[in-house]
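Q: what does this look like with pyridoxal-5'-phosphate bound?
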Amino acid sequence: MEDQNIEDGLTENPFPRDFHGYWNTGDSDRKDAPLWAKYRTKMAGEFPSPFRSTKHALAGQVETFLEKLDQLRPEENGSAYLGASGDLAYAYPWVKNVAIRQEMGDLDAVLDDVVSLFQGAPNWGSPLTLCNVNPNSNTAALLASMMSQVFAANILEGEYAWNVHRAELETAGMLGNLFGWNPLNTGAIYTYGGGGCWTYGLKYGLTRVLPDSRSKGVRSNAKVICSQQAHYVQQNATDWLGLGMDNIVQVRTDTRTNQMDLAHLEAILLELTSQGIPVAVVVCTMGTTDAGAFDPIGKVREILDRHPNPPGFGKAILYADAVVGWSWIYFKDYDFDQNPLEFSERILPILKRNGLALKELSVADAVGIDFHKAGWAPYVSSCFLYKNAAEFESIHRRGEDAYLQARTPYNPMYYTLEVSRTASGSLAGWATLKYFGMEGMQAILGGILESKYYLLDRLASLPEFVCVNPDDSNLVTLFRIYPTGTDAKAQYQRELKDPTRRSELVRHNQLTEAIGILLFEWYRSGKTIDGKYTPHMSYSTGFRTTTYNQDGAEAESVIYALKIFPMNVFVTSEVMRWALTCVLAARDEVMRSLPSLAP
Ligand SMILES: *Cc1c(COP(=O)(O)O)cnc(C)c1O
């Protein structure tokens, strides 16, 4: 027999004829097995089994280590960080002076080390965590994204994702429907953050406006138009895509609403078209990072359509950077008369306003959303959505390649920026959409506004405080506190508008920053006041300019502010009051240690 001949030939081979018996025989200590095979035996016992099995079951390991991770949660009413200490347990850059060990490690010891890395990390679910739009993750999204790691679906193409692709395709459908687009022609690409979405939006504009740029490179100074308060990722995107940061044109923002100033936008478009310069993309920020303002995208669409690109260039893309604000669209069709979820009268008009602002997303060509911001899902679950999938996917199409075959109808690898893409974000987003439904999302968002407007009303009643973004109805409250005895509301108006008050503005900016720094130190060191831990808050070193510094030329004439985001479902009105008590205490301590800040 032919097989026999092959086997005979192998007896001449210096290597063993059949090494199968070295492992998986149930006798892991075979003395004569070579060392590599002993390692294999150990790994075969510690990798998840390909088969259903109770021995070494992955679920058991997950349970053991999740329990250890859970132990890092504080006792009730504990600190806003995880574990026993808020200290940073490494020294930079010396921490990098480390090499791979020679021998194979011990699985449990490595996992214990992983648990220890979370010592001191922010606890996003803590009611005291008020620092940013970082929410704690809902359980459906958390488990969905964790599970995606087990069988590692790769959504670059159908063969490696199979039915898991439904998470991305149904996201396109559900959100396309919500945006008022045709769901069948809506496209969705889960990508690496709101920054990735912005980059996709810009790329869409470049490809449509400068079709030759795909092969010849970007050879035109096409412009990217966004507001002064747009996210700094404008720089990443223009830089990395090779368009150049100098091609960003910033539109002034309204001094009261922080929205894009439409007259200035129109003036910019007129100027560009008169010079024959094309626009690649206009970006409306639907929820700015610092102030939470929504640009008036409906009106922007009208203005953009009135000023098309010069002949020879494609039509500019209107991109909505809605990564922070997108979920307010859940209120676009809420029944405000019946008010089925029984929100307070206080916030109903706000919910209505936000719903109407986001309803205008329908006019965008593409929208970026972050489920890891106001979607209560884990990182990274950002989704870039485009209204005209047939166009987007054809104009970015690349050719076939030899490695991969299209075995299903949906193969985004032909037009995505990424090659391999984890399914983890798509499962997190999809699970959130399915779990929350319309009412769950409305309830969680409305609940945040109940806390936020409670805070706003408190600020209005306390003479030393002033809210500096009272017209912004998104998630963040920005405010300043002044020295005892100051009428904060009047003083702030003077600092905002009067250049002769510049030195007072600067002094109170320094006060704001010093309070922000002290509050962070208190949070990190686990300080308590009256036996209670202090919150994790943040501050901005200039969320906007003064009214006399609209072009931003004077670096000092900007408004610093403390920030509170009541982002999670454990925040209560009591937490809002407590945060202000801590801010007052921090102000008093700063004033004691830095008397130069006194009036
Ligand atoms: C957070 C943010 C981004 C960047 O998003 P990532 O998910 O952090 O990459 C972009 N735009 C706005 C308005 C943001 O708030």
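The pocket of pyridoxal-5'-phosphate is lined by residues 193-195, 198, 231, 233, 285, 288-289, 321, 323-324, 370, 382 (CB under 6 Å). The chain has three domains: 3-108, 179-443, 462-597.
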